[in-house]
Specification:
The chain is mainly β. Among the domains are: 92 residues, Immunoglobulin-like (Sandwich), CATH 2.60.40; 95 residues, Sandwich (Immunoglobulin-like); 42 residues, no CATH class. The protein contains five helices and 31 strands. It has a ten-stranded mixed sheet with strand order 1-2-3-5-7-9-11-12-13-14, with no helix packed on it. It has a four-stranded antiparallel sheet with strand order 17-19-22-21, with no helix packed on it. The protein is flat, with a radius of gyration of 65 Å. 21% of the residues are buried. The C terminus is likely disordered.
């Protein structure tokens, strides 16, 4: 049951008649739906009202202040048939503003400020029959602007604009065009054949333009033509128009001078004449050019009407614009890079309605000078080499070149002044050896008369030629003339190649620095070794033992002298023995020199009370080290050194006693 109620509600909503749309303010809607008409003329509108019924069939917005047409202004108005926007201030039309007006038949945009028309602005008008664009500021119309309605338009009005040209190709495609209004513009020509493709054209109005002539249609003229206000040139090109019946028309002739200001329709047909062309100038800027140079070929002609100029190439084919050739509107032919195919005569052809004339222009294209072909090199023979490829060059001139100061690697070349060759720019020296096929070139200033060749090999024969490079006055190009050639041989021996030189500075520096570092390390190690040995010698001195007693209960071996016994002096008259110096390492103190002749003190004492030999001691020292007190180094009053007394330390002297 609920589903049935919902279905009835939906069906009622669908079948309910739509409420009529309100008529916009200040507008008149004389015809209600289903085909409403909306009239909004002279209502002061600044833009198209957005509350327009989208089912409107006719919409008139004339005499307002609308400045621009936007894309949404006429959206979804597929039923609109007639749209009038005359006498507004429209200067901008958004692309696709008329895109939804597929049923529109008449569009009036006259009396606005449109500066140009593009294809996107008039897109979508597939059913357009009448297009009014008069009284605008049109200066340019794209060819695609009429593409959407070219097959359907019947009336096209472009009058009172600033058009110097119109897209005649697009207009010629309007097969249904009946009336074409182009008066009061700046047109200077009507494209030939444009009117021949308009089979339904009934009226053409080109009044008040700048036309001097109008091309004839393909067949009998079936349309009415309005030509008043144009500077017509009354010659044979307008004879077809003079033969038409035109009672009461007031067109006049502007030229030629003998027909000026005469009524066009009153001039006899015999006076509509043309003058065949005559060529007044035909020449080339240069009679001869090198291959690849640029040259222009000029041509001028006179005739009535002014003749058209075209060129024929030396092979008889018409010359067209390309990468090497260019045709100017004044008839000048430019050859940007002359080729050997351009050698010959170009023909200038001038033609108009009365005939044609031709004139040849000769042009010589010289091939570029190529180096003389050299014979293929023979395989290198053993030491006895064949003569160089320059050996035969300029043989009569050999004596004019001198090779002096010959060494194993150099030679001085001298040549005389060249007074018979004016304008010398430089000298060129070229040479090679009998074992080398490649030439070596050297460029020498024109002021030089000698040159030293320094890169020669020892023990070889050389062929050398000197050429003078000068500027040719005929072609303004550099040319060369041989001064002479000479053959010479370098001295044998000598190094065949220069001594090797170090070319790698970075590697040399690295080797030097590495060697210095290694030497420094070795010296440092040597110093450390010497200092280490010296320190070791001071740290472990050799013990000096003055006397050692045997461990035999105080007994001495036979022949041994008791330490307390006095020493025997030298025999009378004998020289006293030298006194050995006391080593500092033995006594553990600085050595003190003894005075000459001083009494020697015993080195060891076996008593502790100062008495000698009173109490024999059974104490035996393990090691005896004598120390010299500070007083030991002093001298007594007599100048003799004082007695030395040993100093016993706890760590240096130990006694072992046995009872």
């Amino acid at each position: 049951m609920a589903k049935l109620l919902v279905s009835l509600v939906v069906l009622g909503a669908v079948t309910r008649p739509q409420a009529p749309t309100r008529c916009p303010g200040r507008c008149i809607c004389p015809t209600p739906a289903p085909n409403p008409t909306l009239l909004c003329a002279k209502t002061g509108l600044l833009f198209v009202p957005p509350a327009i019924d989208r089912r409107t069939v006719e919409l008139r917005l004339t005499d307002n202040f609308i400045a621009a047409l936007r894309r949404p202004d006429f959206a979804n108005m597929t039923s609109l048939v007639h749209l009038t926007l005359s006498r507004n201030a429209i200067s901008r039309v958004a692309p696709g503003a008329f895109g939804d007006l597929c049923a529109l038949r008449a569009l009036h945009l006259d009396g606005n400020r449109l500066p140009a028309l593009s294809g996107a602005q008039l897109r979508g008008l597939a059913s357009l029959r009448r297009l009014m664009l008069a009284n605008n500021q049109l200066g340019r119309i794209e060819a695609a602007a009429f593409a959407a309605f070219a097959a359907t338009v019947e009336d096209l009005d472009l009058s009172y604009n600033n058009l110097a040209s119109v897209p005649w190709e697009a207009i010629g495609a309007m097969a249904s065009l009946n009336t074409l209004t182009l008066d009061h513009n700046l047109l200077e020509r009507v494209a030939p054949g444009a009117l021949a493709r308009l089979p339904k054209l009934a009226r053409l109005d080109v009044t008040a333009n700048r036309l001097r002539t109008v091309p004839p249609p393909a067949g009998p003229a079936r349309f009415a033509l309005a030509l008043g206000g144009n500077p017509l040139h009354c010659n044979c090109e307008l004879l077809w128009l003079r033969r038409l019946e035109a009672a009461g028309r007031l067109e006049t002739c502007a030229t030629p001078p003998h027909l000026a200001d005469r009524l066009f329709w009153a001039v006899p047909e015999e006076e509509f004449v043309c003058r065949p062309p005559s060529i007044t100038r035909a020449r080339a800027t240069a009679g001869a050019v090198l291959e690849g140079q640029a040259v222009s070929v000029l041509c001028a002609a006179a005739g009535d009407p002014p003749p058209a100029l075209h060129w024929l190439a030396p092979d008889g084919r018409p010359v067209r614009n390309g990468s090497r050739r260019a045709l100017r509107p004044d008839g000048t032919l430019e050859l940007r890079a002359a080729a050997l195919a351009d050698h010959g005569a170009f023909t200038c052809v001038a033609s108009n309605a009365a005939g044609e004339a031709a004139a040849p222009v000769a042009l010589a294209v010289l091939p570029l000078p190529l180096p003389a072909a050299r014979p293929p090199p023979s395989p290198p023979p053993p030491p006895a080499a064949a003569p160089s490829d320059m050996a035969g060059a300029a043989a009569p001139e050999r004596r004019r070149i001198v090779a002096a100061e010959l060494t194993a690697s150099s030679a001085r070349i001298r040549w005389p002044a060249q007074r018979h060759v004016p304008g010398i720019r430089m000298y060129q020296i070229q040479y090679n050896s009998s074992l080398d096929d490649s030439l070596v070139y050297r460029m020498i200033p024109s002021s030089s008369k000698t040159f030293v060749v320094t890169d020669l090999a020892a023990g070889r024969e050389y062929d050398l030629c000197v050429l003078a490079v000068y500027e040719d006055g005929a072609t303004a190009l550099p040319a060369a003339r041989a001064v002479g050639c000479v053959r010479f041989a370098t001295a044998a021996g000598g190094p065949r190649c220069p001594a090797a030189r170090p070319h790698f500075l970075g590697g040399t520096i690295i080797i030097v620095i590495g060697g210095a570092i290694a030497a420094s390390v070795l010296v440092f190690i040597l110093i450390l070794t010497v200092r280490y040995k010296a320190a070791g010698a001071r740290r472990h001195p050799t013990a000096a033992v003055a006397s050692v007693c045997s461990q035999t209960n105080g007994a001495h071996p036979p022949g041994a002298k008791h330490p307390d016994e006095p020493e025997a002096g030298p025999p009378p008259g004998a020289e006293p023995p030298p006194v050995p110096p006391v080593l500092p390492e033995a006594v553990g103190a600085p050595a003190v020199p003894e005075a000459a002749g001083a009494a020697r003190t015993p080195r060891h004492r076996h008593s502790f009370d100062g008495a000698r030999g009173l109490f024999p001691s059974h104490s035996y020292p393990r090691r005896a080290r004598t120390r010299l007190h500070g007083s030991a180094s002093r001298l007594d009053a007599a100048g003799a050194p004082g007695p030395r007394r040993p100093a016993f330390g706890s760590t240096e002297w130990m006694l072992e006693s046995t009872v």
